[in-house]
Amino acid sequence: MNPTINSIKSFYPADVVERNLARGGRFSSGLFADDVKKDSLGEAIDPRYNSSVIVKAGSPKWEQSPKFDEFMSDLAKKRNAVKNALTAQGKGANFNAAQFPSDYYSFVNLLRLDITRRRIEAADMTNLVAQETTRLDASKSILFDEFLPFVGAFEEFKGRGDKVPMMQHKTGKEGSALVKLYGLGDVRTLEDELFDSDIYSLSKVADAFVRAFVALRNDLTIGKIVGYTYPANQSQVADTTGATYDEKLYLTINNAIELLRGLIDPTTLLPIDASRMTLMCAYADERKINRVINGQLDNSKGKAINLQPLTEVTEIWPYKGDTITVGDRKYSYAGVTKGTAFLFVPGSYGAPNYVVTKRPLTYETGRGDLFSAARDGQIAYFGQAQYSDEFFGEAAGLVSGSGYVVKITLP
User: Fold this and answer.
1) Rounded to an integer, what distance in angstroms lies between the CA atom of residue 349 and that of residue 129?
2) Helix, strand or coil, per DSSP, at residue 281
3) pLDDT tens profile 194-218
4) What are the helix and strand counts (H, E) for the chain?
5) Cβ of 7: how many Cβ atoms within 10 Å?
6) Cα-based distances in Å from 276 to 7, 108, 281
7) Per-residue pLDDT band at 1 (split at 50, 70, 90)
8) Does the pLDDT value for residue 104 go beyond 90?
9) How far is CA 129 from CA 37, 44, 250, in A?
10) Which of 18, 59, 237, 339 gets the most CB atoms within 10 Å of its CB?
11) Where are the alpha helices (DSSP H) in 90-188?
12) pLDDT for position 372
């Protein structure tokens, strides 16, 4: 029986979102008003919107859902309530956060929920590439052994007071990873937000927060794979023996699979579990890679040749990164370049690639000067630590022939 085209799926940003939605999971976001030491995530003040942050597969996009218009109407009412209260107090342009009316935090909490809901629809791939854990109690410096599993082995014992072997809690490379904070603020004053801006411009602010958040989060994991320098044991050169381009591409990817399966875990020194592999490539190369991996080759004369699909590759991720221009400064988040690909075991399938999140995407209000002594405002930020040395193996300076990723040069 001939293999079926597209039996191995290409995984686009919309598919990332759908997979996250299919899990029915909650995307945590924080609201820490005045005291960032409170280890509790903000909850919706209005219970009608709890379900808008917990969504399932097939849910309509946020701005296309009936709940969105209701939400924005309530947001406008809260904004007007704060504006009217401040006007009644005669604060004008000069007021301090300590004098904000009670509706203010309800207003900010709705903004937080808007950002969280938009984040759900953005292709944050962190929890696919890495094993992510949220730990609000994490210290600034996290020892590597906190990322790694404990180990132990059963031994026979007599049960007459003799000791049993003990587990080892510290495994792998010694050292620590720092929790790093990343933040972004809206430069407008609260006066601008309440008096001079259309309510729907706040949606643009939320979109900007989410795009910047997802671009950096992906860059901290996927971007690291793209940017690493790989030794020969983790580099697959293009095959030159095939009679056609498709054959060369097929053989190149097949050789990369063998190369990845031949790598060892840097801690156990045993062959890695590579039963599920992801191939990440440029958008320009995705279509031909998909066809070839599924065993559909062109013999260069317009006729197809059916070969065994390379089923070890379970998903193909085209990844282009992002570029964000802010004024005269350009922030570039590297994607995969044409002619290059990466074959790896993702953290979601057990590879030792770890992220500890100290703070999820958090929308914070503050008293005093967040941006300057004369302003009150809000910022969005998150904090996380990473440990991926064992994932990169020899490329990270560990044991020769170890790792969970291979770089491929395409023909």
Assistant:
1) 9
2) strand
3) 555 555 566 777 788 888 999 999 9
4) 10, 16
5) 11
6) 14, 43, 17
7) very low
8) no
9) 29, 30, 25
10) 59
11) 103-120, 126-129, 144-147
12) 44
